[in-house]
Each structure stands twice: as structure tokens, then as C-alpha cells.
Amino acid sequence: MDRIRNPFTPGAGVRPPLLVGRDTQLLDMSVAIQRMARGRFERSTLLTGLRGVGKTVLLNEFGRIAEQNGWRHEHLEVSDDTDIAKAIATLARRSLLEMSRTKRAAERAKRALGALRSFVKVHVPMSDGTTLTIDLDPRPGVADSGDLDVDLGGIFTELGETAADANTGLLYTIDELQYLDNHKFGALIVGLHRVSQIGLPLLVAGAGLPSLPGLAGEARSYAERLFAYSNVGSLDESDARRVLEESAASEGTRWHADALDELVARTEGYPYFLQEFGKQAWNVADGPEITRADVEIASTLAIEELDAGFFRARIDKTTNAERDYLRAMATLPGNPPYRSGDVAGALGKRTPQVGAVRDGLIKRGLLYAPRHGQLSFTVPMFEQFIHRSLT
Ligand SMILES: Nc1ncnc2c1ncn2[C@@H]1O[C@H](COP(=O)(O)OP(=O)(O)OP(=O)(O)O)[C@@H](O)[C@H]1O
Ligand SMILES: [Mg+2]
């Protein structure tokens, strides 16, 4: 069928034509924003889930909801070398400069920018601060104590107060949060804790791998109270069907019943896989109906595509020792989670001897520990990939 009209959208953070199965999260965000606009307390949101389930798509949707409610939205994607002070200062500067152009909050925004200038002086190394110039007098004493927790709290408070004066609110979405180390994550949490106590319209929505709640808990014990955790998973069978059926229907095409069953089964309802398999099946089919035979051919193509991109990208930078570890894990009997002791055993080693390798894989975001001493893959169907490509 006509590739130009293909409705499927495999890709990182690409908005699907139909966002299925996420009504609860969308409604919760909408309610939270409207409550905060009335000065009520609401917890920030942390989305957790495996690779390719639609976390980034949801964060983008949250941004849209915020803007529909007259709020401002900024997005940050963390990597393992993110300097959190600089990153937050960059977002804050952008928000404040925008608000300084409004009549209502121009003066308040300028004072906040002065505080931000002092913050930058203390927390962002000179060589790094070049993109953060602020042409206003510094305002000492608000966010320049040198203690990052306290000073982030100071900046968030300035932001929240300015937004309240400007009769708006601020939503910051932060993606890939698992890459922040405990210290930085802790500082962020404590900073947020301060604004959340005083009912200012500033909300953070974060997303990350399933290791996130554990990290947050370690970072600060009251993270539990500060965040509403929401698990983003694969779609259930009827939602998975809807994605395939309604996407195809939007371009005047339908699935043969067998073809649909087969794709739902093969993708296990994982959004990324639904999009990739759906795309290939569409391209293969002559139409107007997509048949079981089309799905057979498409599946081979989809797997090739995933192997070369979605899966391959995850292991590109791994070391030989890390690949050995992944291979050993994938060849253990049974299903994940596996015991880290058993993985070590399969490698002919003792747990402490391969601890650094395991930690490296967790840091890279390939594995997570659902419980102490246990390990799972963060990428759905990763074991099959390892069997296809690494053994
Ligand atoms: N609710 C949904 N219904 C249908 N398709 C979806 C849904 N959510 C996401 N997708 C599709 O799934 C794919 C992955 O989405 P996204 O990049 O947001 O996942 P992610 O969880 O952020 O993954 P990663 O952890 O790798 O960053 C995209 O192609 C997107 O179009
Ligand atoms: Mg993402």
C-alpha cells in the first residue's frame, strides 16, 4: 500500500496518531494542573517503564495539557554527564525571560533573574556559563548559599512565585531521570520539596526506567510522598487491537482477523513494537485488507529493523565483559528476574567478581534490579535479541 499514507510511527518520542491506554495518566495531569492553579498541593509525577512503552510521548502530551491550561512548559532530557545545576538554570532562565516580557510579572521576573544570576555564579563553572548570561544585577542571598539542595529550592521558589504573579504555571518535564546520580537526584527532590510545601504553581513530571522509584527512595526518604508514581506498561489486548485497527482505519484500511490476532500476539502489546510491525505490514500489503500472509513477511522485516535500530542502539557502547554478562543472563533457564548470583555462576565467577560489570549495565540503563539481588532487562524482548545477535 501507499507508503506515504502509512499511519504507523515507530520512533523515539514520536507522537502516535492514536494515543491509546493512557487516559488515567492524562486525566491525572490535567487535574493536577487545574488544582495547582487554585493553590492546592499536588504531587509531582514520576513515570516509570521499560524502553519503548511511551514515556516520552506521555511527557510531551503533559506539555500540551499544560499549554492548553495557560501554563508554560519546558523539557529536559538527562544523560549521564548532565550537570543538573546548569540544566535547571537553563530552563529557569528561559521561563523567566519569557515571563519578564509580560506586564504583570516583569518586575518579579527581573528580581528572580537576579537571583538566578547569583545561583549561576556559585553553581555553574565559568567556562560552562557562557550560554547563561543574564544582563541584570545579581541578587545575592536567595539561591547562592553553595548548598545545591537549598539553592535549587530557592530557584524553584522564585520560579513559582513569578509564575503565580504572571497568572500562569510552570511544568518541567524531565526525561531519562535514571541517569541522574543519587546526589543530583536528591538535590532536585529537596529543591522541589520546598516549593511543593508553599502551594506555588510549579510541577515536575519525570520519566525513567523502572529503577527510578528505588533511586528516588534512596536519594531522599520523603520522595515517596513527593511523587505520584505511575507505571507505564505494554497495552492490554483490546488497546493493542485498537492501535492497529484505528490507525489502519484512519487511512481507510482494515486487518483480516487472523492478521490482527497474529500481530497482537507477536508484539505483546508493546507500543514501539506495535508501531514497527504495523508499519511493515502496511508497506508489505497490497490492500485493501492486510492479511495474515502480509504479517508473516512483515514480521521478518520488522525484526530486522528493530535489531538494527531499537535493540542495537542499546548495546553499541557495551564492553566485551558486559556483552558476556548479558549473554550469560539470557541463557539462564526460566524467565526474568534472574538472581545476580546465578548470572555470576553461569560465568564461572562469584557475585562480587562481576559486580562492577553488573553495575555498569545498570548505569547504562540496560538492566535494573526489581529487588535486591535480582536482575531484569529494561528492553522488552531483549533476550530474544541476544539469542539472535550475540550468541
Ligand atoms: N499509547 C500509545 N499508543 C500507541 N503507540 C504509542 C503509545 N505510546 C507510545 N507509542 C509509540 O511507541 C513508541 C515509543 O514511544 P516513546 O519513545 O515515548 O517510548 P519511551 O518509553 O520513551 O521509550 P525509551 O525508554 O526508549 O525512551 C513510539 O513510536 C510511539 O509512537
Ligand atoms: Mg523515551
For the record, what is the CATH homologous superfamily label of the largest domain? P-loop containing nucleotide triphosphate hydrolases
What's the quaternary structure here? single chain
CATH topology of the largest domain: Rossmann fold
Q: What would the average pLDDT be, to the nearest integer?
A: 92
Q: Structural class, judged by helices and strands?
A: alpha/beta
The shape is globular
The second-level CATH architecture of the largest domain is 3-Layer(aba) Sandwich
Instruction: Give the strand order, joined by hyphens, for the main sheet.
Output: 2-3-4-1-5
| Percent helix range | 40-55%
Bound molecules: adenosine-5'-triphosphate, magnesium ion
Q: Point out poorly predicted stretches.
A: none
Largest sheet: 5 strands, parallel
Question: How many strands?
Answer: 10
For the record, the CATH class of the largest domain is Alpha Beta
Through-space gap between termini: 36 Å
Q: How many structural units, i.e. domains?
A: 3
What is the CA-atom radius of gyration, in angstroms? Answer: 23 Å
Note the main attributes of this structure.
53% helix, Helicase, Ruva Protein, domain 3, alpha/beta, 391 residues, 10% strand, binds magnesium ion, five-stranded parallel beta sheet, three-stranded antiparallel beta sheet, Rossmann fold, binds adenosine-5'-triphosphate, single chain, Arc Repressor Mutant, subunit A, 16 helices
